Task: structure prediction
Amino acid sequence: MDTNDLIPIKDNLGLMRDPNTFAIINNSSSQYQNYLRLKKQKEMEGGKIRNIEEEMDSIKDELSEIKSLLRTLINGSK
Result:
């Protein structure tokens, strides 16, 4: 495919359209690098959220266990 055959996309300098397949092609390496950086950042944020959810589940389990032990202590002292 010859890059001279590509059609520029209006209002976006980094994107071009292939007239044969109508595919949109990113012609800007800086935009692509920015996309990869943002994708990696979102993946890291997703991992942080999963870790927080796991920690919260663990805290809930431990709190439930503490409540059960307290009930046992209270009922046993009567």
